[in-house]
Amino acid sequence: MANSAVERRISRRTAHRSRSTAVSIALGVLVLVAAWVGTESVLKAVGSGPLLADPQTVVDAALRPDAAFTTIAEVIAVVLVVLGIVLVVLAVTLGRQHRAVVPHDRGAVLIDTRIIAATAQNAAATAADLPDGHTTAVSRGRRTDVRVVPVSGVPVDQARVQDAVRDRLNQLDERFGKHVRVHVEENGTLS
């Protein structure tokens, strides 16, 4: 049982994107601000001039703002709000990669969704008796959308194509064949 828990954790970590980049950026900005405040404080304590701006002068200017300071403060505030929103969204979203986890006797198998889409595209082309260039497929999560452009004058049986795609995807994993949608274009093209 412990093995399956470890396998589930590994599968989940592999199928989801790491948030370490966003965390590293946020911590880097925080370290830079703290280093600046510390450097300025030490320079003030030893009686030297400020490196960029004296923190006390910045606080005094914030308490008695003029037009230029207000504009700069508004720009900085907007940038910080946008950065905060981006970091919150990165923290809350799952960060899902384009991979699907398929359970297996010896562990878990990760399949790129482009492979699932290519399998659906090939099954649709074979069922419709069309060249591969007349079919396209997109797979997102457990849903697969297939688009078929028939050859002019040759009808395509949508139900037959959908059943063929569903059967082929069920061979990979039964979850992939549940949500298949096939759209056959009304206007055909020359082969």
Characterization of this structure:
With 191 residues, the protein is an alpha+beta fold. It has 6 helices and 5 strands. α5 runs antiparallel to α6 (158-172). The chain is elongated, with a radius of gyration of 28 Å. 17% of the residues are buried. The mean pLDDT is 79.
Largest sheet: 3 strands, mixed
Tell me what portion of residues adopts beta-strand conformation.
15-25%
List the secondary-structure elements in sequence, H or E: HHHHEEHEEHE
Q: Supply the helix-strand structural class.
A: alpha+beta
Biggest β-sheet: strands ordered side by side in the sheet: 3-4-5
Number of strand elements: 5
Question: Fraction of residues in helices?
Answer: 55-70%
The first-to-last residue Cα distance is 55 Å
| Discrete helix count | 6
Q: How big is the Rg?
A: 28 Å
State mean pLDDT (0 to 100 scale). Answer: 79
Unreliable stretches covering 5 or more consecutive residues: none
Shape: elongated
Q: What would a concise description of this structure say?
A:
This protein has 191 residues and is an alpha+beta fold. It has helices at 2-15, 20-45, 55-63, 67-92, 113-128, 158-172, and strands at 99-104, 107-112, 135-140, 143-148, 179-184. Helix 5 (113-128) packs antiparallel against helix 6 (158-172).
Topology:
Elements: H1 2-15, H2 20-45, H3 55-63, H4 67-92, E1 99-104, E2 107-112, H5 113-128, E3 135-140, E4 143-148, H6 158-172, E5 179-184
Parallel strand pairs: 4-5
Antiparallel strand pairs: 1-2, 3-4
Helix pairs in contact: 5-6
